[in-house]
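Hi V.,

You were right to ask for the full record rather than a summary. Here it is.
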Amino acid sequence: MTISFVSDANVACTGWEAEWSSTVPPPQEPVVTSIAGTCNSNIIDLSFDIPIQCDSVNVNYFVLNSPLGFSILDVQPNPCVADSATDFQIILDNPVDDCETFDFNFEIHIPDQCDSVYIFNYNEVISITDCPLESIPILSTDTICENNCADISADGDGGDCNYIYTWTNGLPLARDPMPFVLLQIQPLD
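Predicted structure:
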Protein backbone atom coordinates (compact mmCIF):
# COMPACT_ATOMS: atom_id res chain seq x y z
CA MET A 1 0.00 0.00 0.00
CA THR A 2 1.31 3.44 -0.91
CA ILE A 3 -0.01 6.68 0.56
CA SER A 4 0.83 9.94 -1.25
CA PHE A 5 0.28 13.34 0.37
CA VAL A 6 -0.28 16.39 -1.75
CA SER A 7 -0.39 19.79 -0.07
CA ASP A 8 -0.11 23.43 -0.86
CA ALA A 9 2.37 25.70 0.94
CA ASN A 10 -0.28 26.92 3.44
CA VAL A 11 -0.38 23.65 5.43
CA ALA A 12 1.98 23.49 8.33
CA CYS A 13 1.94 20.25 10.30
CA THR A 14 4.43 18.28 12.36
CA GLY A 15 3.24 14.81 11.36
CA TRP A 16 0.25 12.67 10.67
CA GLU A 17 -1.61 9.73 12.15
CA ALA A 18 -3.38 6.81 10.50
CA GLU A 19 -5.30 3.71 11.56
CA TRP A 20 -5.42 0.54 9.60
CA SER A 21 -7.58 -2.55 9.93
CA SER A 22 -8.28 -5.49 7.70
CA THR A 23 -10.42 -8.59 7.75
CA VAL A 24 -8.82 -11.80 6.59
CA PRO A 25 -11.26 -14.51 5.55
CA PRO A 26 -10.86 -17.84 7.36
CA PRO A 27 -9.59 -20.80 5.33
CA GLN A 28 -12.17 -23.06 3.76
CA GLU A 29 -12.92 -26.14 5.90
CA PRO A 30 -11.85 -29.31 4.08
CA VAL A 31 -14.52 -32.01 3.77
CA VAL A 32 -13.56 -35.68 4.08
CA THR A 33 -14.67 -37.28 0.81
CA SER A 34 -13.56 -40.83 1.60
CA ILE A 35 -11.83 -42.97 4.17
CA ALA A 36 -11.11 -46.58 3.27
CA GLY A 37 -8.92 -49.52 4.12
CA THR A 38 -8.55 -53.11 3.01
CA CYS A 39 -7.76 -56.41 4.64
CA ASN A 40 -4.09 -57.44 4.91
CA SER A 41 -2.94 -53.81 4.73
CA ASN A 42 -1.84 -51.39 7.43
CA ILE A 43 -2.82 -48.31 5.39
CA ILE A 44 -6.06 -46.33 5.70
CA ASP A 45 -6.60 -43.92 2.79
CA LEU A 46 -8.06 -40.52 3.70
CA SER A 47 -9.20 -38.01 1.03
CA PHE A 48 -10.40 -34.40 1.20
CA ASP A 49 -12.33 -32.26 -1.27
CA ILE A 50 -9.69 -29.50 -1.46
CA PRO A 51 -5.88 -29.44 -1.34
CA ILE A 52 -4.42 -29.06 2.15
CA GLN A 53 -0.90 -27.94 3.01
CA CYS A 54 1.04 -31.15 3.63
CA ASP A 55 2.25 -30.12 7.09
CA SER A 56 -1.31 -29.21 8.21
CA VAL A 57 -2.01 -32.92 8.63
CA ASN A 58 0.17 -34.28 11.42
CA VAL A 59 0.24 -37.68 13.16
CA ASN A 60 0.27 -35.86 16.55
CA TYR A 61 -3.25 -34.57 15.83
CA PHE A 62 -4.70 -38.08 15.30
CA VAL A 63 -6.26 -40.33 17.94
CA LEU A 64 -7.39 -43.90 17.30
CA ASN A 65 -10.25 -44.63 19.72
CA SER A 66 -10.77 -48.25 18.70
CA PRO A 67 -10.07 -51.09 18.17
CA LEU A 68 -7.54 -52.20 20.76
CA GLY A 69 -4.31 -53.65 19.43
CA PHE A 70 -3.73 -50.96 16.79
CA SER A 71 -1.93 -47.65 16.90
CA ILE A 72 -1.08 -44.97 14.35
CA LEU A 73 2.56 -44.85 13.29
CA ASP A 74 2.35 -41.96 10.83
CA VAL A 75 0.11 -39.86 8.58
CA GLN A 76 1.61 -38.96 5.21
CA PRO A 77 0.44 -37.04 2.13
CA ASN A 78 0.03 -39.23 -0.93
CA PRO A 79 1.61 -37.46 -2.80
CA CYS A 80 2.63 -34.00 -1.65
CA VAL A 81 2.83 -31.73 -4.72
CA ALA A 82 3.73 -28.03 -4.36
CA ASP A 83 3.26 -28.38 -0.57
CA SER A 84 -0.38 -29.55 -0.93
CA ALA A 85 -2.31 -32.80 -1.09
CA THR A 86 -5.89 -34.03 -1.16
CA ASP A 87 -4.98 -37.64 -0.33
CA PHE A 88 -3.26 -38.86 2.83
CA GLN A 89 -2.37 -42.27 4.24
CA ILE A 90 -2.87 -43.21 7.89
CA ILE A 91 -0.25 -45.87 8.60
CA LEU A 92 -1.10 -48.39 11.32
CA ASP A 93 1.41 -50.46 13.27
CA ASN A 94 -0.20 -53.77 12.18
CA PRO A 95 -2.03 -54.95 9.07
CA VAL A 96 -5.76 -55.55 9.43
CA ASP A 97 -6.34 -59.30 9.23
CA ASP A 98 -9.91 -59.56 10.54
CA CYS A 99 -13.05 -57.46 10.29
CA GLU A 100 -12.51 -54.30 12.34
CA THR A 101 -14.17 -50.95 12.93
CA PHE A 102 -11.81 -48.02 13.38
CA ASP A 103 -12.85 -44.78 15.10
CA PHE A 104 -10.52 -41.84 14.35
CA ASN A 105 -10.60 -38.37 15.91
CA PHE A 106 -8.26 -35.85 14.33
CA GLU A 107 -7.56 -32.18 13.75
CA ILE A 108 -6.38 -30.33 10.70
CA HIS A 109 -4.46 -27.08 11.41
CA ILE A 110 -4.75 -24.63 8.52
CA PRO A 111 -3.28 -21.11 8.54
CA ASP A 112 -5.08 -18.18 6.94
CA GLN A 113 -3.29 -15.63 4.73
CA CYS A 114 -1.88 -13.87 7.81
CA ASP A 115 -0.73 -17.12 9.48
CA SER A 116 -3.47 -17.28 12.11
CA VAL A 117 -4.10 -21.02 12.53
CA TYR A 118 -7.62 -22.44 12.33
CA ILE A 119 -8.29 -25.89 13.78
CA PHE A 120 -10.88 -28.15 12.15
CA ASN A 121 -12.02 -31.23 14.09
CA TYR A 122 -13.14 -34.53 12.56
CA ASN A 123 -14.50 -37.87 13.71
CA GLU A 124 -14.44 -40.62 11.10
CA VAL A 125 -15.48 -44.26 11.51
CA ILE A 126 -14.51 -46.94 9.01
CA SER A 127 -15.29 -50.66 8.92
CA ILE A 128 -12.99 -53.06 7.11
CA THR A 129 -15.03 -56.09 6.09
CA ASP A 130 -13.24 -57.53 3.06
CA CYS A 131 -11.10 -60.12 4.88
CA PRO A 132 -11.71 -63.67 3.66
CA LEU A 133 -14.22 -65.62 5.71
CA GLU A 134 -12.72 -68.67 7.33
CA SER A 135 -14.82 -71.13 9.27
CA ILE A 136 -13.90 -74.10 11.39
CA PRO A 137 -16.62 -76.76 11.72
CA ILE A 138 -17.09 -78.14 15.20
CA LEU A 139 -18.81 -81.51 15.78
CA SER A 140 -20.31 -82.66 19.07
CA THR A 141 -18.88 -86.13 18.41
CA ASP A 142 -15.87 -87.30 16.46
CA THR A 143 -17.91 -89.90 14.53
CA ILE A 144 -21.25 -89.44 12.78
CA CYS A 145 -22.97 -92.70 11.86
CA GLU A 146 -26.23 -93.43 10.02
CA ASN A 147 -29.31 -92.79 12.17
CA ASN A 148 -27.26 -90.96 14.78
CA CYS A 149 -27.45 -87.27 15.55
CA ALA A 150 -24.69 -84.78 16.05
CA ASP A 151 -24.55 -81.08 16.65
CA ILE A 152 -22.58 -79.20 14.04
CA SER A 153 -21.48 -75.64 14.60
CA ALA A 154 -18.75 -73.43 13.20
CA ASP A 155 -16.50 -70.65 14.40
CA GLY A 156 -16.09 -67.86 11.87
CA ASP A 157 -13.21 -65.47 11.41
CA GLY A 158 -12.96 -62.67 8.84
CA GLY A 159 -15.65 -61.55 6.42
CA ASP A 160 -17.95 -58.85 7.72
CA CYS A 161 -18.31 -60.43 11.21
CA ASN A 162 -22.06 -60.70 10.75
CA TYR A 163 -22.28 -64.48 10.99
CA ILE A 164 -25.97 -65.32 10.94
CA TYR A 165 -27.07 -67.82 8.31
CA THR A 166 -29.36 -70.79 7.76
CA TRP A 167 -28.09 -74.30 7.37
CA THR A 168 -29.99 -77.02 5.51
CA ASN A 169 -29.22 -80.69 5.04
CA GLY A 170 -28.75 -80.24 1.30
CA LEU A 171 -31.09 -83.08 0.35
CA PRO A 172 -33.67 -82.59 -2.41
CA LEU A 173 -37.20 -81.90 -1.21
CA ALA A 174 -38.43 -85.26 -2.63
CA ARG A 175 -36.71 -87.07 0.26
CA ASP A 176 -37.61 -86.69 3.89
CA PRO A 177 -36.45 -83.18 4.50
CA MET A 178 -34.62 -82.73 7.73
CA PRO A 179 -35.36 -79.54 9.66
CA PHE A 180 -32.97 -76.69 9.14
CA VAL A 181 -30.98 -75.28 11.99
CA LEU A 182 -30.43 -71.56 12.52
CA LEU A 183 -26.90 -70.99 13.73
CA GLN A 184 -25.46 -67.95 15.41
CA ILE A 185 -21.72 -68.03 14.80
CA GLN A 186 -19.40 -66.01 17.01
CA PRO A 187 -16.07 -64.73 15.68
CA LEU A 188 -12.83 -65.90 17.22
CA ASP A 189 -11.14 -63.33 19.44
